[in-house]
Amino acid sequence: xxxxxxxxxxxxxxxxxxxxxxxxxxxxxxxxxxxxxxxxxxxxxxxxxxxxxxxxxxxxxxxxxxxxxxxxxxxxxxxxxxxxxxxxxxxxxxxxxxxxxxxxxxxxxxxxxxxxxxxxxxxxxxxxxxxxxxxxxxxxxxxxxxxxxxxxxxxxxxxxxxxxxxxxxxxxxxxxxxxxxxxxxxxxxxxxxxxxxxxxxxxxxxxxxxxxxxxxxxxxxxxxxxxxxxxxxxxxxxxxxxxxxxxxxxxxxxxxxxxxxxxxxxxxxxxxxxxxxxxxxxxxxxxxxx
Length: 290
What we know:
Cytochrome c oxidase polypeptide IV; flat; about 290 residues; about 60% helix; mainly alpha; transmembrane helix; transmembrane; membrane
C-alpha cells in the first residue's frame, strides 16, 4: 500500500511508534540530581543516560516521525441503558421563573438585624452580671478580639468600663447584626412553614457550630473565655426577635413574578400545565394545598 493511500484506509489507524526513551531520559535526570548529594559516578551515569535517550528519542522523530499502522475492527456498538425512564408532566415555559415570587425588602432585614442585636445584648449583659458582676465584661470580651494588646487581659480588666472597648464592641456587634438580619430577610421566604422555628433554632445552632469550629483561629481570646451555653442563648434570642420582626413585614413581588403572564399573576390560569387525571396525585396535591 502506498504511503499516500494509507491515510485513506478506514480500517487502519496510524499511531506514533512506542518508545522507552522518555523513561530513560527521566531516569538519567533523576540520577544526575541524586549524584549531586551522593557520588559523582552516579551523576556521570545519569548524564550518559540523558545523552543516549536524547539521541535515541530525536532519531525517532527526526527527520521523519515514525508511525505504526494499527488495524481497526469497525463495528456498530449499540448503547443500552439500564436506567428507568420517568414520565415527566408537561409544564409551562415559565415554571423555573416562579420561585421565589415574593421576598422581603432590604429594609426589613436591616430592621430585623437591629431588633435582634438589641435582644442579644440582654443575655450577654445577664451573663456578665451573674459571672463577673459587671455589665461591661461581654462588651470588652468582644472588643478584645480586635485589640491585640488585650489578648492577655485579666478578668478584672475586662470587667471595667473602657470607652474604646465599648465603641469597638458596638461596631463589631452592629455590623454582624445587620449582615445576619439581611440574611434572615433573604432566607425566611424559603421556609413558608414555621419560619420562626427556623429563625430561632435552626440558624442560631448552625451559626454556633460554625463559630465553634473557626473561633480558635479568628479570636483565640474569645475561644478560651467564651461560655457556649450563654452564647447559644444569645443566638436564640437574636434569631427569635429578628425572625419575628422580619416575618411581621409585608413581602414584595420579585422580578420573577412580574415576568409571568398576566393570566397567571391574576390567578386566572395555573402555571403547572395540564396534567393527566391521577387520583393519587390529586390527593397529594390537595394535601399540599392544605
